[in-house]
Structures are given as C-alpha cells and as structure tokens.
C-alpha cells in the first residue's frame, strides 16, 4: 500500500469517526420506525443532508484553504462573523453539546441506573469541564479506542438486525417520506460542523506533506468519500433496523427509547447495556471536543473580554441547564432554527465549490438573500407547535386565531414554490435572486463605463 493510499484511509476514517457523533445515532432508527416499508426513500433524504452535504462541506472548505473567513468572504465581513458565531452556538452550547448529555442520560443512565437527569448531567459536564481545563491527551487515547468499539457494537446490532429482523416493516406512519428524511438530516448539524471539522482535516493533510493546492484538494475529496461511504453504511443499517421494528414497537416512543428497545430485542439486556455505555462514552468525548473547540473560538474572537477558562465554564453551565429539557425537546427547539440556517449553509457550500466560475460576489449575495427569504418562512412554520404550546401556557387564546392564520398563509405560500415537497422551496428563489444581483451588477458596471468611453471618444474627435 502506498503512503498516499494509507494517508487517505487513515484521515478518511478519522473524519468518519468525527462525523459519526454518538448523538446522531438516534435519528436513523427513528426514521426507519416512521417510514416502515418506505425506509429506502427516507434514508435517501437523510443521506442528502446528513452525509452528502457535510462531505461537500469538507471539500468546499478545502477549496477555501481551510479558513473559516474564506468561506464567507464573498458576502461581507459582518455577515461572515455573525454566521460563524451562530454556527458555533448551534453546534456548541445551544443544541449539540446539551444533546450529548441528554442522549447519554436517556440511553445509558436512565435504563440502567435510574438516577435523575439533573445529577447525570451534572456529573457529565463536571467530567467535560475537567478534561477541557486539563491539558493532556487522555481523551484522545480514549477516543481512539471508543470509536472502533462503538463501530463494532453498531455493526453487531445492524448485522443481527439483518439476520434476525425484529419484525416486518409496517406501512409508513408519516407523509412525504423523502422530505422527512431530508429534514431529519438537518438535526445531525453535520453540514454546519463540517466547516469546523474541515480545519482539523486539512491541517492533518498538510501535516503529511500535501501542501500544494491541487494535491490538497484531491486528498480532501478522497478522505471525504471514505467518510461518506462509512456513514452511509452505518446510517443505512440503522434505518433498516428501525424499519423492522415499526410493526413491533409502539408509535409513541421517543427517539432514544426506539434505540434502547431495539437493541434489547436484538441482543437482550446485556446488549442494551453495552450499546448504552458505548454511546454514552462516545457522547462524552464528543462533548469534550465540541466544548474545547467552541471555547477556543469564542476566547480568541473576544480575547480582550473573556478567557478560555471562563468561556468553557459558561459553555458547560449553559449546556447543563439546557440538557435537562430532554433529547426530544432540544430537537424540537433546534428544528425551526436549523430550518433557517441549514439552507444558507447548503447554498454557501455549493457556491464555494464553484467559486472560480462565478463572475462576482453579488451572485453570492443574491443567493443568500433569496434563500433566507424562504428559509425564514420555513422556520416560522416549523415553530408552529412550539408557539402554540407557549400561547396555551400563557392562556393567550385570542392570539391563537391570528397566529393560526399566519401559519396557514405561510404554508400556502410555501406550497406554491417548486420542489417544496422534497425540501428545496428556497432553490428557485435563491437561483433567481443570485442571477438578478450578479447580472444586475454586471449591467450596472457596463452602463457606468459606457458614458466615460463616449466622453473620451468625443474628446479625441475635438482634437
């Protein structure tokens, strides 16, 4: 095996391990459970946003030389700053980090030990804080053993699910199966995380001697493909396992309960415990990595105002508080926000892939504005249940009719847009606004230069 092939495999599997993120493993079984016989369609939608876009994000960042500032440079500095801060908050203390603790509690702690979520989360973030404040490589060593162990446990679960299925897949319990998978892929947050992970991957590639831009990009593409194949196999197997349990397990189970009960049916109580501990420890390493990454970013961004130590303490405290809302509630709150930000990330990823063919930065401006004009509406619709529950708690019943009218109007507007049924209602508005802004700028520049050329020719005639 050549050095290049070996490097591709090593870095590719490292990227696969980083993307695998134990907190993401709760989504495929639930998707399979909901889609039943049509699990293949839901898997396809999930792979687009949960695997394809993150890998394209890595490649896109490779074309940006691995610098976050280059990823948004064609918009403007202020937008870039706010966008990256927002992404860091989403994959940091607002959603991703709290979800790791909540997932650990619901899969590893509650079924086996029965302690409260508050105590479980306190211990979880105390350990997280200890490691992010203590410079050592213990967690790196643990992670090297945990990832293969987690993959082995998941592999056994999937293989057993194929050999002796839980049952026969039932009819789907939701409509628009592809769209459901597409939107569930948002919750992995991996397209957002790819911007951060890319800096690590590209640093690893350059450290191995691939510093020339062309070779760096090729290595990035190959490592991305390995991660893509690995994730596709794992997620596909888990979706199938969830589908085989769709006629056996109740419909009202939470995402984590589906994982726990599926593992217990396939491998018994021992299998449930082993899977729970593997996922719990993997979630802990993910939490430590995300906390350290977010802490470093915010302490450098606001270096005159807050230290790294204070930053990671704040992150752990906020994450501890939010983790006690539970996995499904965290996902419900994250949903509307991801509906707004994820399409923008997708558009920026695609545009940066073809940046050298785009005449001016106003094509970027228009695409982002066009996307946001629709994704904000999608976020508003996704927040319907949350807002209704809030109004009920506040007993603001008169306002509910007006809010319902607003939701219905927005839904009807979105339904008129092409590709709404497969999750891309923002596609044509993004394309239209991009062309309008980009070519509008070109036409404007031509009209500005035309009078000056006429003046010059007139002066020449006078002479």
TrEMBL record:
<dbReference type="GO" id="GO:0015188">
    <property type="term" value="F:L-isoleucine transmembrane transporter activity"/>
</dbReference>
<feature type="transmembrane region" description="Helical">
    <location>
        <begin position="186"/>
        <end position="207"/>
    </location>
</feature>
<dbReference type="Pfam" id="PF05525">
    <property type="entry name" value="Branch_AA_trans"/>
</dbReference>
<feature type="transmembrane region" description="Helical">
    <location>
        <begin position="424"/>
        <end position="444"/>
    </location>
</feature>
<dbReference type="GO" id="GO:0005886">
    <property type="term" value="C:plasma membrane"/>
</dbReference>
<keyword id="KW-0472">Membrane</keyword>
<feature type="transmembrane region" description="Helical">
    <location>
        <begin position="306"/>
        <end position="327"/>
    </location>
</feature>
<keyword id="KW-0813">Transport</keyword>
<comment type="similarity">
    <text>Belongs to the branched chain amino acid transporter family.</text>
</comment>
<feature type="transmembrane region" description="Helical">
    <location>
        <begin position="145"/>
        <end position="166"/>
    </location>
</feature>
<dbReference type="GO" id="GO:0015820">
    <property type="term" value="P:L-leucine transport"/>
</dbReference>
<keyword id="KW-0029">Amino-acid transport</keyword>
<feature type="transmembrane region" description="Helical">
    <location>
        <begin position="79"/>
        <end position="101"/>
    </location>
</feature>
<dbReference type="GO" id="GO:0005304">
    <property type="term" value="F:L-valine transmembrane transporter activity"/>
</dbReference>
<feature type="transmembrane region" description="Helical">
    <location>
        <begin position="362"/>
        <end position="381"/>
    </location>
</feature>
<feature type="transmembrane region" description="Helical">
    <location>
        <begin position="219"/>
        <end position="243"/>
    </location>
</feature>
<feature type="transmembrane region" description="Helical">
    <location>
        <begin position="333"/>
        <end position="355"/>
    </location>
</feature>
<protein>
    <submittedName>
        <fullName>Branched-chain amino acid transport system II carrier protein</fullName>
    </submittedName>
</protein>
<feature type="transmembrane region" description="Helical">
    <location>
        <begin position="273"/>
        <end position="294"/>
    </location>
</feature>
<dbReference type="GO" id="GO:0015818">
    <property type="term" value="P:isoleucine transport"/>
</dbReference>
<dbReference type="GO" id="GO:0015190">
    <property type="term" value="F:L-leucine transmembrane transporter activity"/>
</dbReference>
<feature type="transmembrane region" description="Helical">
    <location>
        <begin position="39"/>
        <end position="59"/>
    </location>
</feature>
<keyword id="KW-1133">Transmembrane helix</keyword>
<feature type="transmembrane region" description="Helical">
    <location>
        <begin position="113"/>
        <end position="133"/>
    </location>
</feature>
<keyword id="KW-1003">Cell membrane</keyword>
<keyword id="KW-0812">Transmembrane</keyword>
<feature type="transmembrane region" description="Helical">
    <location>
        <begin position="7"/>
        <end position="27"/>
    </location>
</feature>
<dbReference type="InterPro" id="IPR004685">
    <property type="entry name" value="Brnchd-chn_aa_trnsp_Livcs"/>
</dbReference>
């Amino acid at each position: 095996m050549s050095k290049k092939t070996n490097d591709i495999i090593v870095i590719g599997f490292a990227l696969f391990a980083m993307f695998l993120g134990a907190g993401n493993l709760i989504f495929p079984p639930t998707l399979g459970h909901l889609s039943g016989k049509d699990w293949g369609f839901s898997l396809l939608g999930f792979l687009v946003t949960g695997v394809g876009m993150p890998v394209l994000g890595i490649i896109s960042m490779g074309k940006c030389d691995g610098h976050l500032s280059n990823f948004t440079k064609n918009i403007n500095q202020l937008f870039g700053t706010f966008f990256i801060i927002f992404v860091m908050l989403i994959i940091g203390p607002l959603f991703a980090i709290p979800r790791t603790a909540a997932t650990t509690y619901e899969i590893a702690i509650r079924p086996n030990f029965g302690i409260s979520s508050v105590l479980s989360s306190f211990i979880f973030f105390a350990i997280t804080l200890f490691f992010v404040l203590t410079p050592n490589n213990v967690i790196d060593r643990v992670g090297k053993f945990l990832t293969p162990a987690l993959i082995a446990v998941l592999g056994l679960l999937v293989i057993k699910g194929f050999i002796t299925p839980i049952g026969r897949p039932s009819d789907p319990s939701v409509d628009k199966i592809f769209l459901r998978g597409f939107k569930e892929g948002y919750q992995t947050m991996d397209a957002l995380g790819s911007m951060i992970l890319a800096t690590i991957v590209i640093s690893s590639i350059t450290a191995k001697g691939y510093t020339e831009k062309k070779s760096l990009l090729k290595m990035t593409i190959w490592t991305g493909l390995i991660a893509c194949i690995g994730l596709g196999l794992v997620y596909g197997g888990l979706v199938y396992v969830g589908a085989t349990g769709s006629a056996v397990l109740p419909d009202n189970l939470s995402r984590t309960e589906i994982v726990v009960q599926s593992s217990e049916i396939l491998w018994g109580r021992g299998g449930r415990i082993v899977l729970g501990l593997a996922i719990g420890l993997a979630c802990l390493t993910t939490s430590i990595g995300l906390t350290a990454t977010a802490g470093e970013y915010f302490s450098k961004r606001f270096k005159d105002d807050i230290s790294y130590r204070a930053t990671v303490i704040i992150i752990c405290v906020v994450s501890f508080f939010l983790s006690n809302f539970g996995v499904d509630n965290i996902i419900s709150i994250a949903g509307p926000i991801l509906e707004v930000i994820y399409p923008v990330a997708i558009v920026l990823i695609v545009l940066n892939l073809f940046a050298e063919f785009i005449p001016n930065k106003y094509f970027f401006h228009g695409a982002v504005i066009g996307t946001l004009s629709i994704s904000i509406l999608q976020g508003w619709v996704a927040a319907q249940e949350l807002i209704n529950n809030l109004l009920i708690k506040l007993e603001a019943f008169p306002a509910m009719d007006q809010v319902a009218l607003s939701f219905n109007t927005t839904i009807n507007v979105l339904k008129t847009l092409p590709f709404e049924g497969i999750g891309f209602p923002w596609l044509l508005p993004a394309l239209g606004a991009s062309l309008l802004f980009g070519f509008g700028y070109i036409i404007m520049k031509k009209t500005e230069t035309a009078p000056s050329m006429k003046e010059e020719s007139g002066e020449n005639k006078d002479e």
